Amino acid sequence: MHDFCFTIPYGLILVGGGVFGYLRKGSTASLGGGVGSGLILIIAGYLSLKALEKRKNSYLALVLETVTAAVLTWVMGQGYYQTSKIMPAGIVAGISALMTGFYLYKIATGGNHIPAKAE
Prior knowledge:
Strand content: under 5%
Shape: elongated
Number of domains: 2
Largest sheet: none
Radius of gyration: 15 Å
């Protein structure tokens, strides 16, 4: 499975959650954090997709994805630890931890699998 198949939806969920948090509670932290991190992930997923179209790996995209997911895991994990609120801190921390593991796996296995050219 290619990283962008999960990264782009993950980024869209974060953007949606940030906007929802702002509209529901007026939280500018949700808006900035969700939209900011979501856009970084969407851009990284797009870079990875475009690299694969050229039959290459984008290690810049993998690093951006991994760092963003790891930071979200840490920040939202701290939020969950302090408040014990599953929504949104616990959910985002859990998803981000899974995504961090996925990205580390992709890095360890050499990035996206580039299929052989069809003849």
